[in-house]
Design goal:
The structure holds two protein chains of two kinds.
Chain A lengths: L2 H35 L5 H19 L1 H9 L10 H25 L5 H17 L6 H34 L4 H25 L3 H5 L4 H24 L8 H45 L10 H29 L5 H20 L6 H14 L6 E2 L1 H32 L1
Helix pairs in contact in A: 1-2, 1-4, 1-10, 1-11, 1-12, 2-10, 2-11, 3-10, 4-5, 4-10, 4-14, 5-10, 5-14, 6-7, 6-12, 6-13, 7-9, 7-10, 7-12, 10-11, 10-12, 12-13
Chain B lengths: L8 H5 L5 H27 L6 H24 L5 E2 L4 H27 L6 H33 L4 H34 L6 H31 L3
Classes of the chains: A mainly alpha, B mainly alpha.
């Protein structure tokens, strides 16, 4: 193999792993924040849940978004020189890594997703002009960035209002919670299982068609419902306060939704780290970039592993800090945020849209706030997020363009 | 946060301290202050003035502590904060709750400046009035606690009704306190021939000052009412 090719391949792998590690240490904490903040799980448990379920989500559902990042933003057929494609993906990874590192240092709420997309656009424009960018796909992606926090907010709002109407408004809230809670858990499990089986490698491997997948999902959902009902049965009313009992029940149920969040997060965010690596890999092995070729599972596993390791090495420090910073979140609120954000991110993942999990979680928090569920939501974060939308893509594109130009001069 | 750096927009979003927790903390100072004052007034009405200076000092301390809490709540309540109730009304509520303490402090200081012996025939009415005022504050505290539960359930109807019930109780007690004050004032005028003018003036003022406390407790209840309006 050509030594330059080998260097790019290994270097790309390392950078991809670094990105995955960064996602694991920062973004995972953000998505698990509500569960840790509401004391549904300890930060240690959060690290374990996030590590395992991010990996599962990345490996089994991560391919859709990875394909988008690998081949749908920059049109590879317009770039004749395959070495330039390799260099481009490499520069994009490097630029995104540097940008993410800087923003972490400055504690800016930027999204790894946005920096990766920006970096790809930067290299694409330099290599073969504005026309090489698939603008309609990019528009779709940009649209999803605005829509995902909004959808997260609407879903979290509806779930929380549902909890108020179906539980708090009732004569015996704790009795209603014993039925409503497991019902939402069943829905959660149906969503997770069907996303695992429908249009995925796993589904094809097991030879399951859509009808069977739905049946299996419903079966798992019912099993989960029965299990959670049994789990809730052990919670007895202590003293007088019904509402405390409801919160204690949702503390148990939130363990499931925090798994849901971690799973969806892995499914969406693994692409940020692995998408460009998958591009490099397919050019290096087959000589062309075929957007329709499947992303190797081994690469997704590498990304999933990187996220899990990031979570375990650095993420636990971040999550411990979180536990102290967020104290005013109760379990019914945390549950609504988790469900709203995770469902949005999972749908986006299935549609192949790379969205920001952190921004979606913030959107979901605002949604619960609008449902009059939270004591104080600082809306200034919205301005910060909008600024980061506007800044991240151009700066990361610029950085990637510069790196690409330098590398092209060096290598040829 | 030493040299650890991370991107966590979620922690910026969920502020660390709930303004309502602060409000209840402030209310606990009101409660403590009212309890101290109640014991102090009993001593004063019995003519045991020597111990009253201590009470005035303690009330003043509590008022100061509550001021610090109030300042802290305000400092953590910038614009662009999304609350389940109107932010302006919340600030106003805090101000009215603080006014209870201001009036308690004023009362204690003013009483300590001039020790007026309460005539035997007025003593019972004075005690009755003071107790009714304290009951008004107590009912307001209960309304506030119920209000916190209402927030926990995000405005469930039956909890709203419970808060409203407590608010009615505050109004009723405040009205009763007023009636006792009128009776008390009439009694003071009835025996005015026996009283020295300065004593009479001070007795009338004491009744007013004590009654002020109930008025502000009622204002707090009114603000809770407008905050929970649909």
């Amino acid at each position: 193999m050509d030594p330059i090719l080998l260097i790019i391949l290994i270097g790309g792998g390392i950078l991809g792993f670094y990105m995955a590690w960064n996602i694991g240490s920062n973004d995972v904490a953000n998505s698990m924040a509500t569960a840790v903040g509401a004391k549904a799980i300890t930060f240690r448990q959060a690290v374990i849940i996030a590590g395992i379920l991010n990996f599962v989500g990345a490996v089994f559902v991560g391919s859709h978004v990875t394909e988008t990042i690998r081949g749908n933003i920059v049109n590879p057929s317009l770039i004749e020189n395959t070495l330039h494609i390799l260099l481009g993906f490499f520069s994009s990874l490097l630029a995104a890594s540097i940008f993410v590192m800087l923003s972490t240092w400055k504690e800016m709420p930027i999204s790894t997703t946005h920096s990766v997309i920006g970096a790809l656009v930067g290299f694409g424009i330099i290599e073969s002009g504005i026309s090489s960018i698939n603008w309609s796909k990019l528009g779709e992606v940009a649209m999803s960035w605005v829509l995902s926090p909004l959808v997260g907010a609407v879903l979290a709002f509806l779930v929380f209002r549902g909890i108020v109407k179906l539980i708090f408004e009732r004569e015996r809230p704790s009795e209603s919670a014993r039925v409503v809670g497991p019902g939402i858990i069943a829905l959660t499990i149906i969503l997770i299982v069907s996303s695992l089986l429908m249009k995925t490698n796993l589904g094809r491997m097991l030879n399951i068609d859509i009808r069977q997948a739905i049946l299996i999902a419903i079966g798992c959902g019912i099993a989960g419902m029965i299990l959670s009902m049994l789990l809730l049965r052990r919670i007895r009313l202590k003293g007088e306060d019904e509402y405390d009992a409801v919160e204690r029940m949702f503390r148990k149920l939130q363990i499931v939704t925090s798994c849901y969040v971690a799973f969806s997060h892995g499914a969406n965010d693994v692409a940020n780290a692995i998408g460009p690596v998958a591009g490099i890999f397919s050019v290096a092995t087959t000589g062309v970039l075929d957007p329709k070729a499947e992303v190797p599972v081994a690469l997704l596993a590498l990304g999933g592993l990187g996220i899990a390791i990031g979570c375990m090495t650095w993420g636990h420090k971040v999550m411990r800090t979180l536990g102290y910073r967020i104290t005013s979140l109760t379990n019914t609120r945390g549950f609504s945020v988790d469900f709203g954000a995770a469902t949005t991110v999972l749908i986006a993942s299935k549609l192949g849209l790379p969205v920001s999990t952190s921004h979606t979680v913030v959107g979901a928090v605002v949604g619960v706030g609008l449902a009059r569920g939270l004591d104080a939501v600082d809306l200034r974060v919205i301005r910060k997020i909008i600024v980061s939308w506007l800044l991240t893509v151009p700066s990361s594109a610029g950085l990637s363009a510069i790196i690409f130009l330098i590398l092209r001069c060096m290598v040829g | 946060m030493d040299e650890r750096h991370f991107r966590l927009p979620i922690t910026d979003t969920l502020r660390r301290k709930s303004p309502f927790a602060g409000l209840l903390e402030h209310m606990n100072k009101v409660r403590e202050c009212i309890d101290v004052l109640k014991e102090g007034l009993k001593e004063y009405y019995e003519g045991r003035f020597d111990r009253f200076s201590e009470v005035a000092k303690r009330v003043s301390e509590l008022e100061h502590e509550a001021d610090l809490i109030k300042g802290n709540i305000r400092a953590h309540l910038p614009r662009f904060i999304l609350m389940p109730v109107d932010r302006g009304q919340f600030q106003w509520l805090l101000r009215e709750q603080d006014a209870i303490l201001d009036h308690a402090e004023n009362l204690a200081e003013m009483l300590d400046m001039r020790h007026t012996k309460i005539p035997k025939e007025l003593k019972d009415l004075f005690v009755e009035h003071m107790e009714k005022v304290m009951e008004t504050v107590r009912a307001m505290e209960e309304a506030m606690e119920r209000f916190k539960v209402l927030l926990e359930t995000s405005f469930a109807t039956k909890e709203r009704d419970l808060v409203k019930e407590k608010i009615h109780e505050v109004h009723r007690k405040e009205w009763e306190a007023d009636q006792i004050k009128y009776k008390l004032t009439r009694e003071i005028y009835r025996i005015e021939k026996k009283l020295k003018p300065m004593d009479e003036y001070h007795l009338l003022k004491i009744a007013d000052w004590v009654d002020d406390i109930a008025d502000h407790a009622e204002n707090v209840a009114d603000l809770i009412r407008s905050m929970i309006a649909r």
